Amino acid sequence: MDILHGSSKKGADAAGRTTMYASVDTSDIGRSGWRRGRWMRALLAGAMVVTTGLVGVLTAGSASAAVPTFPDNLLVFPNRDFVSVQGYTQHAGETATVTVNRPGVGVVGSATAVVSGGDVAFEVNHPGGVCWGNGTSLNVSPDIVPGDNVSISFGGVVAGDTTVQDAFVTEKSVLSGSTLTVNGHIGAGVNPAFTEQRIIEPLLRPAIGRRDVAAIPGPLTPARTGGYSSSLEFLGTTFTATYVFIDPAVAQIAANAFLGERFMSWEVVDLVGNRQGLTIAERGEPGGPGFGGCPNGPLASGPPAPSNVVAVNVAGGVKLTWTPATAIPGTAAITGYRVHAVSQTVSATSEQVELGKRIGNPAATGTTITGLLPTDNYFIEVVSVSSVGQTFPPVVTQPVVDVIPPVVTATPLGGSYPVPQNVTLSANEAGSQIYYTTDGTNPVLADILSATATSYAGPIAIATDTTLHYAAFDPAGNVSLIGTQVYRITNTPVPATPAFTTTSVGVGSVTLNWADADPSITGYDVQIYDGTGTTKLGTPIPTTATTLTLTAPDVTADTPYQFTVLAKNANGSSPESAMVGPLTPVGAVVANAGPDQSITRKTTATAVTLTGAGSTTAGATYLWEQVLVSPTDPDKITLTGSTTLSPTFSLPLYKFPMTNNPLTFRLTVTTADGSRADTVLVTPKADTVAVVTARWKLGDFRMTGVGSVVGATITVHKGGLTGPVLGQALVTAGAPNPWTLRLANAAAGTTNPGTITIESTLGGTTAPFTVTG
What we know:
By secondary structure, this protein is mostly beta strands. Helix content is 3%, strand content 45%. The protein is flat and about 110 Å long.
């Protein structure tokens, strides 16, 4: 079997079934750039196939929401914290973001890179690729573990993701005579059928012709290449791979493999055996930075520094303020800060005086360093501290002399409000301390804090009529002007926002309905917007009813609009509702070709009915026409009843050069008032077909494949779809719906045809498939 360049291994299990599965050399996985395209295509196509019933095909294990589909894929090597992104050629030249998200923790790693357009789009944390943190603010190499979700996105839209599988080798292989066993762990969420264990050792090649040995789920089975048999069996959350070698010396070579034990698990296998969402666990491989210059791992990364650091000269020292730092998810927690004032005066022995403090509170927002010489100048170093170290490099700043008082702002401003308010106070200088009162007194007398002042720590709840006074001291001790806001709380709220219920369009009209049971409502305002919802058209239309029909001049026929509504009472107006629309008033003549259709091709000609329901009927004539791409459009069909409201046509069985492109039909309605036209798309939905094997020898040419619909007829072409027909076969019932074509003697031809391409009478086609000799 040759599935997308994967070689195969064949044997028989205890039940007598014939089993085929890919066996590719993974010893160079991720280590040699020139090999990546070849080994990756083979590896991804290595799904297990059972000829009496395809195991796992189109089936998911612990699949995430958007496992990529071939040729796109995400491969995760958790031991090396390495991700290989495959395909995504449709995004060639675009910048992608790879994110590692840990449930319950958040994003623990991210990087951006440009898609190459080749087999390997790009790699993260591997030579030739980019480092973790490239193009993002998360400067750490994540320690990828089972359960992490790795995703790729473009412009903030996720294009695929995979969950790191919980399966790996737990110990070095054990040799007993000619039998080698490898033990490991498999989590409850991993599908055992979607796994494979391998041992990589280049010295095996002279003995068995390969650099690796492999074990797939099932009992002991001889290897196609000879030299050993293997099995992979599961018990609870453990697995055991067993290798029985013919030659004890070869067994010893495998046992001595250095970092050679691998365990592969994947989430999905598609119809032709591509493994999607692949985790490759490599026993003994080190994690952390994949190459020089990449950031450390989470257990070796110093914490980020606090932000907004401000240093101000005060009497006897320097006062500092900052915004507390936040640890990168997955890294050690921040335990506090270190602050040092370093004298800029250098002694004759090249020494500088240094004074500082260690703050053991990670939520601290500042400190004051005293004991500094007023005749000396200093610069300040601030770092965060965690169990693995401190920020490097530190934040360095110089103290400033501040004589400008801060300005304090209250939000919202004073006024009359129907409901209680939460008032936020903010100062324009970082590190300022704000104080306020609500009893009518001032919080500051001259520059002295009053006994009645309260330190501001968060929004102030104002539930009754209140006069609020406030002031702030900046880090230099400058005091702001006293601010005053007067709030009146009426406790008579404005109405809730109404919601549209039903809408309809008529000839030159739009009817809107909405609901609101608030008895305090005295009326509503309806605002008309253009069809995009970006521009208001005219002033709001007042109404007292919850049904409003709009006609000319407010709306014009055949023009789209959007609408909002708000409710009013004695206390004011609610916010505008969500928009409804676009709604288009119809003209005197209405052409409605109906909704677009998706038609599944059948094993016989497929009957399709079009509908003009909703079009003008009084005194109207109708004409349906197919809109062709050219006079020789291969998808041209014949309409029956083209001058009626509901014509029909027969979608014939597929035959190249037909396509599965949407068919466009135009309905023209004509009355004494004029004509209107509308179009509808009918999209044929094809089946899925594939070639599994194609082998030729003189006088005997055998082809096998699968299809998604029983009864479809498969036509095999030499070369591409324009090539001569070699024969036809029927897709039969059974998992996964096989088809078989065998040509013998003269029909097999005298030479290997090279490639074949197939088409189904239900529309499915394939790319050229290479015939083996």
